[in-house]
Here is the input.
Amino acid sequence: MSVSIKKIVPLGFPWETEDPFLFCVYHLDHYPKGNDEMGPVASLEGRSLGNDFAPNAQGWRMYHGHTVPGFPYHPHRGFETITIVNKGFCDHSDSLGAAGRFGQGDVQWMTAGRGVQHSEMFPLLEKEKDNPLELFQIWLNLPKASKMADPHFKMLWHEDIPFQKKDGVSLKIITGDYNNIPAPTPAPDSWAASKENMVAIWNLHLEPGASFTFPSIPEVINRTLYFYEGESCVIDSTRIAPNNGIVLNSNEVLLTNNGLEPAHFLLLQGKPIEEPVAKYGPFVMNTDQEIEQAMQEYRLTQFGGWPWPYPDNVHERNKGRFAKYPDGTLVEK
Here is the structure.
């Protein structure tokens, strides 16, 4: 094994992550044209609607959606969701009254904190052509001191996310600095808000023959590189096939695309929180007692209720990219 590599792990669904990350999933769906309801024009017969996750010959899934693909309302507490939409669109609605439509490279950063409900639907806006969707959803843990913070929702519009392209390398810096290029400010209660935690989320693309050097970091920092599309890459002298996660050591690491196709990677890096983790579905706390309390509070309060007409709420087809915040502030792109 290379001196730069701790281990190599095949990518499953979801991907295996290390503290401070809890979860990472990659969605790539080749959706067809949309119908009048912003669902697929294709037949849904034979699908396990409400739980359609299985890979299939059509190359797309409905997830928990019955009409529009996606995830109708569901609660979260105790962590953050970071949603990167490279292709297609996601419609957000939540129990705070916030809403948005984002895509084409935008990122949504949501701190669930003490509790929020939200829906994440994938409207198929195009009626005359296909609607491909590519997104990552990452769960970043919150330390005990921040688990009951007020919920917070913000957009990182793709126009504001640093993007560096040079010598066959394209780097999108969602959080974490690279070569003194700062990323947008994370949510205020996030583990990523403190620079000493060295949280980095980068989306990296290498053309054939291109190389990229990851800088050395303190040994305490966890760093995992996910090779999710391409033909082959090399770290030191170790050849790595796609659909693998590479847990990296802290030394300077040279990555080279030695394949004939572009290679695509996601980097997750950060100082571990090193606190107990108790998980039950959409709740992540430190103890089982706190999980039971979260479930009881959700049953009693619904984390503020649901102010939208449908559990799988989507916005008007002709609505562009936008964010409506809980205080009523509206940002349109």
The longest strand covers residues 21-31. The two ends are 47 Å apart (CA to CA). The helical segments are 288-301. The mean pLDDT is 97.
